[in-house]
From TrEMBL:
Gene3D superfamilies: Galactose-binding domain-like, SGNH hydrolase. Pfam families: CE2_N. This is Lipase. It comes from Paracoccus broussonetiae. Residues 1-19 form the signal peptide. Residues 69-172 form the Carbohydrate esterase 2 N-terminal domain. InterPro entries: CE2_N (IPR040794), CtCE2-like_dom (IPR037461), PCW_deacetylase/CE (IPR052762), SGNH_hydro_sf (IPR036514). CDD domains: Endoglucanase_E_like (cd01831). The keyword Signal applies.
Length: 391
């Protein structure tokens, strides 16, 4: 009996130790870094050191010729005012220093030198300042500046500038194809780098990286440029929870700045592929008593009519473009059925159209948004669909 009791005691201790070890090795997912540092320089192994600092706007600098993508409106003193996500600009120069001008206390930006091979700088809420990069090895550089956060209101980008000792070079050539992505927070990449669903507002800001959302991933794989017309909470007919009923995608799509309807939109190239993935917010929350819809069936019918009208407008604006319809299948037949009907109607119109119906996503990021794994999955499906359409 004593021997049995000793064995049981030993087994109990072993199980306790195993449990303790499990608790020791099992940790909560890493949370996004907060507060977000105003400037962060990343140098990979073998890259040359350089300096980057935010300074007061400097006089005597010359604007480099730019290649820009993304909706924008012209501001004062060569400023480009933008609000939709994914805005990016590129330039080329030969020398050892360059400056990026901001007037933006809202957003996060990423600056890539030679596609990141010569260095990367992340900037958060730079305000009215110049990012001065110096100490580069004298050489020819391609610099890319991309907004990676979601704007809550318009902000200004002041261009890429050089001093008198730096040689300007022509702007990079535009890529042969443009893909436009239309959607909501899932398209924006809302908190897509987070690995937890419970987040603070600052953690969402830290974890959102539009450049790593499915749209830019698809464009990169296919050697194309991209433009993003997307906004968190927006729907085609009904925003999330019925909010701001006059500010749906139907009324906001054509605007240069979704918060300023009077702003003049700068010219933009037609898209070769249009990916429309809108509607999740239309069906995501219960109806308020004062809404015109009180059941999913009536909303689904009206959504289908509006979706086809919206898509036909995109066809007229982008003649010959492939129309890719992106339906989030987890919302069920009420969302998927209108997309199927729109696909059939466009095909009858003679439009090149592809329907992609996504499977259920893990949605492990903040507030049940798609994670990095989800975005890779969506990019896989879309890249395959676009390639199969022969673009």
């Amino acid at each position: 009996m004593r021997r049995l009791l000793r064995r049981l005691a030993f087994l109990s201790l072993a199980l306790t130790a195993c449990a303790a070890a499990g608790l020791w090795f099992w940790s909560e997912p890493a949370r996004p870094e907060v507060p977000v540092p105003p400037i962060h320089v990343t140098l990979d192994e073998g890259q040359s050191w350089f300096a980057a600092e935010l300074v007061q706007p400097q006089d005597g600098l010359t604007q480099l010729p730019l290649l820009t993508s993304g909706r924008a409106s012209a501001g004062k003193k060569d400023m480009l005012i933008q609000e939709w996500p994914g805005f990016h600009a590129e330039a080329r120069f030969r020398g050892s220093s360059v400056t990026v001008r901001f007037q933006d206390g809202l957003n996060r930006w990423r600056i890539l030198l030679n596609d990141g091979k010569a260095g990367r700088i992340d900037v958060a809420r730079p305000g009215m300042s110049d990012l001065h990069i110096s100490g580069l090895a004298p050489a020819e550089y391609r610099i890319r500046v991309e907004k990676i956060s979601e704007s809550s209101m318009p902000a200004s980008f002041g261009g890429i500038l050089i001093g008198p000792t730096v040689q300007p070079l022509p702007a990079p050539r535009a890529l042969p194809r443009m893909i436009e992505f239309i959607g909501d927070s899932d398209t924006v990449g809302f908190a897509n780098t987070a690995s937890t669903r419970d987040c603070t507002e600052e953690e969402v800001f830290s974890a959102t990286d539009t450049s790593r959302s499915f749209g830019p991933q698809v464009a990169s794989r296919l050697g194309a440029d991209y433009r993003m017309i997307a906004r968190s909470g927006i729907g085609l007919l009904r925003n999330y929870d019925g909010a701001a009923p006059l500010a749906t995608m139907t009324s906001r799509y054509a605007l240069a700045l979704p918060s300023e309807p009077a702003a003049m939109r700068l010219p933009e190239r037609a898209a070769d592929v249009v990916v429309t993935g809108i509607g999740s917010n239309d069906f995501a929350a219960a109806f308020a008593k004062d809404e015109i819809w009180q059941d999913d069936d009536s909303l689904s019918r009206d959504f289908g009519t509006a979706l086809l009208s919206f898509l036909r407008d995109r066809v007229r604006e982008n003649p010959g473009a492939v129309q890719v319809l992106l339906a989030f299948g987890e919302y069920g037949d009420r969302l998927v059925r209108p997309y199927r009907a729109a696909e059939a109607a466009l095909r009858a119109d003679g439009v090149r159209v592809v329907l992609v119906t996504l499977p259920k996503l893990k949605r492990d990021a903040c507030f049940w948004h798609p994670s990095q794994e989800d975005h890779r999955l969506i990019a896989d499906w879309l890249a395959t669909a676009i390639s199969s359409a022969g673009t």
